[in-house]
Automatic annotation (TrEMBL):
The lineage of its organism: Bacteria, Pseudomonadati, Pseudomonadota, Alphaproteobacteria, Rhodobacterales. This is Uncharacterized protein.
Length: 52
């Protein structure tokens, strides 16, 4: 392993320790997507009520 590879590996490990939030991102994204989907469904219902 050359110095650049070693440096990159060490920096990545340090960033992951410093910012562990990346592990929570998928769960948070799923939650936000569900909220957006629910809002979209509510808007669709309102449009149908107005049209119907």
């Amino acid at each position: 392993m050359n110095f650049e590879q070693f440096d990159h590996k060490i920096r990545d490990a340090a960033l992951q320790r410093a910012f562990p939030l990346e592990q929570d991102v998928p769960d948070r994204l799923n939650q936000l997507l569900r909220q957006l989907q629910a809002r979209g469904q509510e808007q669709d219902k309102r449009r149908e009520e107005r049209a119907g």
